[in-house]
Amino acid sequence: MNKTPLKKGQKKIGDPKKLRQQGKQVKSNRYFELVGLAIILLLGIVIYSNSFGCSFHFDDSQNIVNNVKIRDLWNVKAWWGYIPSRALCFFTFALNYHFSQYNVWSYHLVNLAIHLINSFLVWWLTLLIFSSPALMDHPLAGQKKLIALFTALLFVSHPLATESVTYIVQRLASMAAMFYLLSLTLYIKGRLTKRGNNVKYLLFVGSLLSAVAAMLTKENAFTLPFAVIMTELFFFKTKKISLSFKDYRVWLLMGIFIVSIIIIPYFKSPLNVFKPIPPHNGHIYTITPFNYLLTQFSVIVKYIQLLFLPVNQMLDYDIPVSNHFFETRTLLSFLFLLFLIILGIFLFKKQRVISYGIFWFFLTLLVESSIIPIDDVIFEHRTYLPSVGFFLILSSILFILLRGKYKPLAFIILLVIIGSNSWLTYERNKVWKDDLSLWSDNVSKAPNLARPACNRGIAYGELGLFDNAIADYSRAIAINPDFSDAYYNRGVAFSNLNQLDKAIADYSKAIEFEPNFAKAYYNRGNKYEYLKQWENAISDYTRALGIDPGIKAAYANRGIAYEYMKQWDKAIADCSRAIELDPNYNTAYYNRGLAYANLKQWDKAIADYTTALEIDPNFTQAYNSREIAYRNLESMKK
Q1: Closest Cα partner for 192 from 177, 203, 178, 176?
Q2: Cα 276 vs. chain centroid, distance in angstroms?
Q3: How far apart are CA 282 and CA 472, in angstroms?
Q4: Which residue segment(s) compose the domain that 387 sits in?
Q5: Does 487 have pLDDT greater than 80?
């Protein structure tokens, strides 16, 4: 049969049947992707559905509940300056507070949204990796949609992520991961986009902006430039590695690296990060760069165990600090990690995706598990970003080992893992319900740690169960006799039971172990004042203010003590200072009014009583004192 020649400008039309088949295939692929993303979304919502009522915990108090810096969304200087290297995350806390104050539901909603976005990014990252030049002809490339789906499902369901999702302040970890993953996926997408396409450069700009955002969320994001370089070497360098300054990729990588180098010194002095950390927070050891590094060998092995077998999770782990390399635990852990690194090198040529997952895990742990000492040697949220490499390895290995007729078995194994992890996540969220459930769980799993016992004592105290609280504080002190916080909190509990001598003794113990414990001085001053030991009270308030000049109640109470000692001018000065710190401090106005009254300055006394009543119209004493002041003022005028 003769074919009709094409006219000028006429395009060749393909076989209609093949075109229809291709169209159906595209629709089928799109349908599969949408269904997969919907499954990821629904699974994440279901397993975290019981987290929305979980209370604030632990560091949430300092960073959110009691953090005045986030209470004014428009005061950029305040929330940005709180921790500049984490400014973007604290901006989101300021947003939460602006719209819902302390409604935990809204905070959990944002955290879960970030986790779900990260799950989608893990899915996208996996697809892009298997679409790269180095893997596009790999036997697994034909299964990339399934591998991406299962990798994302493993990520969204794993219970180790609860500390980054349900623990509100650890939005720091999940949000940094979000920008980190977005930056990397945009970079890979840009690399896969053909030259001459303007979209390519927009993707690179987006990658760079996201990298900066990650670095303004948490410090572990500073490994991102190296993750980009590693991705380039693993998936785009199919020939001999060479360096040419004519290559735009070299300039792009240099740009990302230079940005990170410029940003790092802005936040921290390079020398300060290596400063040893003395014993505190219930810990009995000093953390140095050397013993922190040695300890991280066994910590990283613990992380791997938790990823494989997430049982006995807790917020505060009992991991002893290693001081010698040849300690059995340290040496064996080091050898195991060395084996993994050698395995990663060995697998580079034939199984790059597994090799990449191994090096991803170590690289993304580098900031928090190296020679930079951190107060706590182990926390689950530090595995959030590294876990991406683990899940990529797990899903890839199962598809490698169980290809062909055994592929259904891979599905079953992965579904069983995802199902069991989903149940464990749901159950773990129950533990995060409130402080009492969280710390009771921790005490049962780490009975030899002082801090969980002390924190459970605080939870009992907030419920008014002071005898239970005292028992836990005493338990913490028995474990660590130098634990100043335990003495302080037990002193508070004794105060609530009106056992003032015991309270004073415990506050004194807390000061003995922590001489700059401002709150302990202040509370001991309160007890002395209650016992009418005015000089001792004034001394303690003065020492507390010398350490922390922002304790408004210390000024107000010292003013009261001065009044009892008839030192009216000093009383007025202290009450005035308390008012400067808090213009709505009604009792400070009232007590200053009393001092003015004793000096027979009735106009000033009346003005202060009136202000106190404007702040609190139910302040009965202020009405009575103002009435007396009015009568005395009238007597003077007669």
Answers
A1: 203
A2: 22
A3: 13
A4: 25-56+102-268+284-430
A5: yes
